[in-house]
Design goal:
Alpha-Beta Plaits, five-stranded parallel beta sheet, five-stranded mixed beta sheet, 2 domains, 299 residues
């Protein structure tokens, strides 16, 4: 772990305490706040990996800051270590009850505090790794089907609230069985990974892509109508068609194509993600049936 990659927010209304902690944590990227309001503003703007939080502060104490952070889905997973002069049992219990990860009393032992900070950051790294493994297809590093189901429902709720459009692209590799039979499954795997990279390059930053199974992929396009989705699909199709996949040390190349189906979820008719997937799948089937290497939309 490169400590400079980790950002620690220190929240304390006493400047001397901020200086002491900042000097102690010199190996990390440190951000300071002198009150709760400032801390909440920083967390909403910057990526914070850990918070060292004083309890006794004017206007908004550390307990209230912690509660607000834990109520916010964007900040609820940031570990919070309380650093305080309060040593009563009620305060300690409350700190853990509202979501604190650890509790350190002042005056603290510098090496002990550093060890606690390191431990919490290591725990967060392990949690992040587990989340990545649970949500990601190991071959392509795209989202897996299960995680796509979860994130697509969240995206649907968001576009409904904002009254935006939502479209879906489904695609798969043309004649993939022939590729495996001719070149072997190890080359088939390279084709799948090559296509995954093409998807990453061609999709927009806001688009959500996943390996749906085998050689089939799906892209969710928030704030995009079917015409915009067709442009993304065609860009991807042409990029694949014009590519030459070098698959061995002798620089042998392989060309392949993809077929794509595009749909737009009709929110006015209360359609859901499954409706959009079924429509895109029907369009994909038609693209395969009518010659492959083409994009077909539901309308």
């Amino acid at each position: 772990m490169n400590n400079r990659d980790k950002t620690i927010l220190i929240v304390d209304d006493t400047i001397v305490n901020l200086d002491i902690l900042s000097e102690l944590l010199y190996e990390y990227d440190v951000v300071e706040a002198t009150n709760g309001e400032e801390a909440l503003s920083i967390v909403n703007e910057d990526k914070i990996d850990l918070i060292l939080l004083d309890i006794m502060m004017p206007n908004m104490d550390g307990f209230e800051v912690c509660q607000k952070l834990k109520e916010n889905p964007q900040t609820k997973d940031i570990p919070i270590i309380f650093i305080t002069a309060k040593i009563d049992e009620a305060s300690i219990v409350k700190a853990y009850d509202i979501g604190g990860a650890d509790y350190v009393t002042k005056p603290f032992l510098p090496k002990e505090l550093l060890a606690r900070v390191k431990k919490e950051l290591q725990i967060q790294d392990m949690i992040s790794e587990l989340k990545f493994l649970a949500s990601t297809d190991p071959m392509t590093k795209l989202y897996n089907r299960r995680y796509f189901s979860t994130i697509s429902e969240h995206t649907l709720d968001l576009v409904k609230r904002e009254k935006k459009d939502l479209s879906i692209i489904m695609l798969d590799i043309d004649k993939f069985k022939k590729i495996n039979d001719t070149h072997g499954h190890h080359i088939g795997d390279k084709v799948i990974m090559h296509l995954a990279n093409k998807i990453i390059i061609c999709k927009r930053k806001s688009d959500i892509s996943a390996r749906f199974g085998g050689e089939e992929f799906v892209i969710l396009l928030p704030n995009t109508n079917i015409n915009g989705a067709k442009i993304v699909a065609e860009t991807l199709r042409k990029s694949v068609e014009n590519a030459h996949l070098v698959y061995d040390i002798n620089n042998n190349t392989l060309n392949y194509t993809v077929s794509l189906g595009v749909s737009q979820i009709n929110l006015s008719k209360n359609q859901n993600i499954q409706d959009g997937l079924e429509q895109a799948d029907e369009a994909l089937y038609l693209a395969k049936k009518t010659g492959r290497n083409k994009t077909i939309s539901t309308h």
